[in-house]
């Protein structure tokens, strides 16, 4: 098989796995399902990725990292909103890769990875910005709220949130983030 064919097959497998894991979760997704969706033999998953777990790890590796270092601290919440709430995740059926991980949370490896990703990326960065006592708790509250907004927009599709533009949410996000973190925060990266 030519290199181009291998790369195209690998890309088809990743695309099929992204959609399958996002829709069905880890335990309900079989390598045979992913391979059938990609139009290839299931043995190719093991050839290209080694295991179902390695395939899952690769397709859920798109969680935004480095958000804390990507700009001014007062804009961290705005960067998180862009990454969690308004990012275009069409490769995951329109849902954030965290949703695929949440649907897979019955699987111990996925649950640990969710904790590492959420706590290590989002919560830690917010806790570092928070002023006063119980910074970790307030950072977790804000993280839970932002993830909830993302889930209601992409998974549940609640009418008001799904139809809201960044500018519609900005003043509310700013006031909640400012109240929880004890310092002025921007709710969007726009104007």
Automatic annotation (TrEMBL):
Q: Which domain of life is it from?
A: Bacteria
Which PANTHER family does this entry report, sorted A to Z? HTH-TYPE TRANSCRIPTIONAL REGULATOR BETI (PTHR30055:SF234), HTH-TYPE TRANSCRIPTIONAL REGULATOR RUTR (PTHR30055)
Q: Which organism is it from?
A: Nonomuraea wenchangensis
* Ranges annotated as DNA-binding: 30-49
Pfam families recorded for this chain?
A: TetR_C_16, TetR_N
Q: Supply the name of the protein.
A: Transcriptional regulator, TetR family
Q: Which residues form a coiled coil?
A: none
Entry GO MF terms = DNA-binding transcription factor activity; transcription cis-regulatory region binding
Where is the HTH tetR-type domain positioned along the sequence? Answer: 7-67
**Keyword set, alphabetical order:** DNA-binding, Transcription, Transcription regulation
InterPro entries annotated for this entry? Homeodomain-like_sf, HTH-type_TetR-like_transc_reg, HTH_TetR, Tet_transcr_reg_TetR-rel_C_sf, TetR_C_16
